[in-house]
C-alpha cells in the first residue's frame, strides 16, 4: 500500500467555492460499499435509504471564530493569528486571559521571546483583544506558537466574537457569503478550527422527517483541527503520524447505539469525525462502546481496519492522498472508492467541504 494509491484527478473547477443554495438540495452519490454500485440522488433522498431503528450519529461541534486579523503593536504591520487549541500557560486561566497554541503570520516577525504582540480591533476600531507570542508549542511541526490572549472586555469569548472570523479551508478562496453556512444547523459548543462538513447538508426539517420515520439521532463531539486538511507526504501511509484531537461520546449516545443494535438497526456516522469518535470509544477488552469525555485520539484508519461500531457513512468528497481518503477506502475498498470518485468527477459533482455528499451503506 502506497500513498499514491489514494490519489485521483481533482479538477480545480469542481472544488466548491460556496455552499449549496439549499442545504439538503445538494447532490448525493449513493454507493453500495460491498459491490460499488452507484446511484445519483439528491441529499434529502437519504430518507429513502434509512430504516426505522437506524441511528444517525453526528458531530455537534461548532467552528470557533479562530482566524484573527490584526496589527503588530509598535509597527502596525499586518499580522494573523490562527487559534488551534487552548493550552496551559505560566499563569492561571481567567475570563480575560488564556493561552492558546496558534499559527502566526508573518512567522519571522512574531517569534517567542521578542515581545511580539498583535492587537485586534472591533468594528468600532477599538482594541478588543491582544495576543502576545510567548513560546514555541510543544512538538511544534509547523512553527506553532503559544500565545497569551488578553482582553479588557468582560470575557475572552466576547472579545473573540468581536474580532474573530470563521476559518475556511485553504482551498476555498474569496468566499464572502454568510459564515453561518459553514456551521451545521445542530452545532453547539465552539471547539473546532474546521467544520464537520458532512453535516452541513442537514436541515431541521430533514432531521425531523427522519425522526418521524423512526430514525434516531445522537451526537458526539470531536474538536476538528486544521490537520484534517493535510495531505500525507510519506510514500508509505503507515509512516504518517496522524494528528491528535479531543473527542467526547456521551452516555446518551452509548445508550442509543445499544438500542439501535438491539433493534437490528444500523449505526450511520455523519462524517469521518463521527467515525473516529465512535471507533475510538470502542473498548477492545470489554468488547463494547464506552462513554468518553474529551479524551485524546490519534486513531488512524487505513484499509484493513475492522470497524466495530459504524455500519454506514455519510461523508463529503475528500482531498487526494489524505487520511480521510484512506478512512473512506477502509470502509469499502480503495478500488470501489476511486471508481466512485471518477464517476463524481465525470458527472461534475461539487467536491470538498462546500461540495456534495456520498452515502456508503
Itemize the secondary structure elements and their pairings.
Blueprint: E1 27-31, E2 38-42, E3 55-59, E4 62-63, E5 67-72, E6 78-87, E7 97-105, E8 117-121, E9 127-136, E10 145-150, H1 156-163, E11 190-192, H2 204-212, E12 216-222, E13 245-249, H3 251-262, E14 267-270, H4 272-280, E15 282-283, E16 288-289, E17 292-297, E18 312-316, H5 323-331, H6 334-346, E19 357-360
Parallel strand pairs: 1-19, 3-12, 3-14, 4-11, 14-18
Antiparallel strand pairs: 1-2, 5-6, 5-8, 6-7, 7-10, 8-9, 9-10, 12-13, 13-17, 15-16, 18-19
Subcellular location: Cytoplasm
Function: Transfers and isomerizes the ribose moiety from AdoMet to the 7-aminomethyl group of 7-deazaguanine (preQ1-tRNA) to give epoxyqueuosine (oQ-tRNA).
Family: Belongs to the QueA family.
Q: What does this molecule look like?
A:
- This protein has 361 residues and is α+β, with helices and mostly antiparallel strands.
- The protein folds into two domains: 3-63 and 177-360, QueA-like (3-Layer(aba) Sandwich), CATH 3.40.1780.10; 67-163, no CATH class.
- It has helices at residues 156-163, 204-212, 251-262, 272-280, 323-331, 334-346; strands at 27-31, 38-42, 55-59, 62-63, 67-72, 78-87, 97-105, 117-121, 127-136, 145-150, 190-192, 216-222, 245-249, 267-270, 282-283, 288-289, 292-297, 312-316, 357-360.
- Strands 2-1-19-18-14-3-12-13-17 form a nine-stranded mixed beta sheet. Strands 5-6-7-10-9-8 form a six-stranded antiparallel barrel.
- The longest helix is centred in the last third of the chain and has 13 residues, at 334-346.
- The protein is globular, with a radius of gyration of 21 Å.
- It starts with 26 loop residues before the first strand and ends with a strand.
- The mean pLDDT is 95.
Amino acid at each position: 500500500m502506497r500513498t499514491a494509491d489514494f490519489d485521483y484527478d481533482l479538477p480545480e473547477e469542481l472544488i466548491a467555492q460556496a455552499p449549496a443554495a439549499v442545504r439538503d438540495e445538494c447532490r448525493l452519490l449513493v454507493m453500495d460499499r460491498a459491490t460499488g454500485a452507484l446511484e445519483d440522488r439528491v441529499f434529502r433522498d437519504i430518507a429513502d435509504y434509512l430504516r426505522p431503528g437506524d441511528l444517525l450519529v453526528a458531530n455537534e461541534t461548532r467552528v470557533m471564530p479562530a482566524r484573527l486579523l490584526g496589527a503588530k503593536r509598535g509597527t502596525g504591520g499586518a499580522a494573523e493569528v490562527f487559534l488551534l487549541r487552548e493550552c496551559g500557560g505560566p499563569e492561571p486561566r481567567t475570563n480575560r486571559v488564556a493561552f492558546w497554541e496558534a499559527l502566526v503570520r508573518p512567522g519571522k516577525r512574531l517569534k517567542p521571546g521578542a515581545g511580539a504582540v498583535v492587537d485586534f480591533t472591533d468594528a468600532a476600531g477599538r482594541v478588543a483583544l491582544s495576543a502576545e507570542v510567548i513560546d514555541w508549542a510543544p512538538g511544534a511541526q509547523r512553527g506553532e506558537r503559544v500565545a497569551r490572549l488578553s482582553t479588557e472586555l468582560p470575557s475572552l469569548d466576547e472579545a473573540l466574537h468581536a474580532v474573530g472570523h470563521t476559518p475556511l479551508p485553504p482551498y476555498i478562496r474569496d468566499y464572502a457569503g454568510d459564515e453561518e453556512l459553514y456551521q451545521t444547523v445542530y452545532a453547539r459548543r465552539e471547539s473546532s478550527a474546521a467544520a464537520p462538513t458532512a453535516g452541513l447538508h442537514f436541515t431541521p426539517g430533514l432531521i425531523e422527517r427522519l425522526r418521524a420515520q423512526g430514525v434516531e439521532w445522537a451526537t458526539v463531539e470531536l474538536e476538528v483541527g486544521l490537520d484534517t486538511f493535510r495531505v500525507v507526504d510519506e510514500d508509505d501511509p503507515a509512516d504518517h503520524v496522524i494528528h491528535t484531537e479531543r473527542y467526547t461520546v456521551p452516555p446518551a449516545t452509548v445508550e442509543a447505539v445499544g438500542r439501535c443494535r438491539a433493534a437490528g438497526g444500523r449505526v450511520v456516522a455523519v462524517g469521518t469525525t463521527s467515525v473516529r469518535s465512535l471507533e475510538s470509544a470502542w473498548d477492545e477488552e470489554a468488547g463494547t462502546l464506552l462513554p468518553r469525555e474529551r479524551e485524546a485520539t490519534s486513531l488512524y484508519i487505513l484499509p484493513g481496519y475492522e470497524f466495530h461500531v459504524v455500519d454506514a457513512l455519510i461523508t463529503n468528497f475528500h482531498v487526494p492522498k489524505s487520511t480521510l481518503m484512506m478512512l473512506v477506502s477502509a470502509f469499502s475498498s480503495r478500488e470501489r472508492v476511486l471508481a466512485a470518485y471518477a464517476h463524481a468527477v465525470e458527472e461534475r459533482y461539487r467536491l470538498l467541504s462546500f461540495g456534495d455528499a456520498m452515502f456508503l451503506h
